[in-house]
Amino acid sequence: MGYGSLYAKSLLDKLRQDGIYMRPLGNVIYLMCGPCTCPHICRQVLEKVYERLKEFSQARI
């Protein structure tokens, strides 16, 4: 694994299908909400990311 790793590509693809664009940096993915993003929108995004992370980790077992 490294900065060019494709390990989480399927996770990122699923998130993009959900309209969530995250950037991988090695084995870390991150996202940023704009300063005007409502807290409930941030919560919805985090819940979807958490859901997809659980699916991804179960698929890797």
UniProtKB/TrEMBL annotation:
InterPro entries: PyrdxlP-dep_Trfase_small (IPR015422). Keywords: Aminotransferase, Transferase. GO terms for cellular component: mitochondrion. The keyword Transferase applies. One of its GO terms (biological process) is biotin biosynthetic process. One of its GO terms (molecular function) is adenosylmethionine-8-amino-7-oxononanoate transaminase activity. It comes from the Eukaryota. PANTHER family: ADENOSYLMETHIONINE-8-AMINO-7-OXONONANOATE AMINOTRANSFERASE. This is Uncharacterized protein. It comes from Thlaspi arvense (Field penny-cress).
